[in-house]
Design brief:
By secondary structure, the chain is α/β, with parallel strands linked by helices. It is built from ten helices and ten strands.
């Protein structure tokens, strides 16, 4: 009797498990995607949802300017159907990595769609610091995902539309917050020149001892120029960045008596436990820190 009951119990368990197993097999395989750095990875995930599997090469708090690719990165590139990059000279190491990986995936360069700003050493690649440019990225991500996976077109459009509405609200929020600060107080020092697009859109002047890339170390002349500018102008605060050596900012603050602000997220998101774990939170964090330091 016990043996028969055990057998029936096993049959019942198998009958319950079978539909779940069959259902699992019918689920579509997620499209493998690589994003060059964390900010792009978040934007792709926002649009792709559960139809995509996104791998980010340069993770939270990582500096894409000086990143050293690994063999694991080459494997990820080789397996990806789409590879999202910023371009504008931001990932100088990526072209060689893609060539070495012999990738057959389509390369989607998002920075091509924006009006590029000149930087001290060439083109400024930090276009995402203007929310209007992030919206261009999102539209281009939607189109690239749709071309690669037409069956997901409706999902990609719905998710992109919803996210674009959030970005519109974010942009209006930033303008409202910073417009409340007197124009003559909207002047700060940052570690490297990553906020040119933000400055042009939102009216905050950033003075930086390094150029648009952290690869170039600030010279003694650069630092002296910044210190002189801080002393001559009404600079509200000196800010650290999550991807840069904090010693530069601390030295400038110490030599000028300028207030030390918080940490700004420039080229990378924060870790999941911090305030900038996704693009919208990152921008809100930066504006909050700026407003805190600049409000009279």
């Amino acid at each position: 009797m016990t043996t028969r009951r055990t057998f029936l119990a096993l049959l019942a368990a198998a009958a319950v498990a079978a539909p779940a197993s069959a259902q699992t097999e019918k689920l579509p395989e997620k499209m493998p995607i690589v994003a060059s750095f964390s900010i792009l990875g978040d934007l792709v995930s926002q649009v792709g949802g559960d139809r995509v599997s996104v791998t980010t090469l340069v993770g939270p708090d990582g500096d894409a300017h000086v990143y050293q690719p690994t063999t694991a990165d080459a494997r990820r590139i080789a397996q990806a159907k789409l590879i999202f990059v910023n371009g504008l000279g931001f990932e100088g190491w990526l072209e060689r990595l893609i060539a070495a990986a012999k990738s057959k995936g389509a390369i989607v360069t998002l920075g091509k769609g924006v009006t590029a700003r000149p930087g001290e050493e060439g083109t400024d690649p930090h276009a995402w610091q203007d929310v209007a440019n992030a919206k261009i990225y999102v539209a281009e991500i939607r189109d690239a995902l749709t071309a690669a996976d037409p069956a997901g077109a409706e999902s990609y459009k719905a998710r992109a539309d919803a996210y674009l509405a959030k970005l519109d609200a974010l942009d209006a929020e930033i303008v409202k917050t910073l417009d409340a600060i007197p124009k003559d107080r909207r002047r700060v020092v940052s570690t490297h020149d990553a906020f040119g697009y933000f400055s042009a859109r939102y009216g905050v002047e950033f003075i930086a001892p390094q150029g648009v890339s952290t690869e170039a170390e600030a010279s003694a002349r650069d630092i002296a120029r910044i210190i002189q500018a801080v002393r001559q102008n009404r600079v509200g605060a000196v800010f650290l960045e999550n991807v840069s050596d904090p010693r530069l900012a601390k030295r400038i603050a110490a030599e000028t008596g300028a207030r030390m602000g918080g940490t700004l997220y420039s080229d990378a998101l924060s870790g999941p436990q911090e305030d900038g774990a996704n693009y919208i939170d990152m921008m809100r964090h930066n504006v909050r820190e700026l407003a805190k330091a600049l409000t009279p």
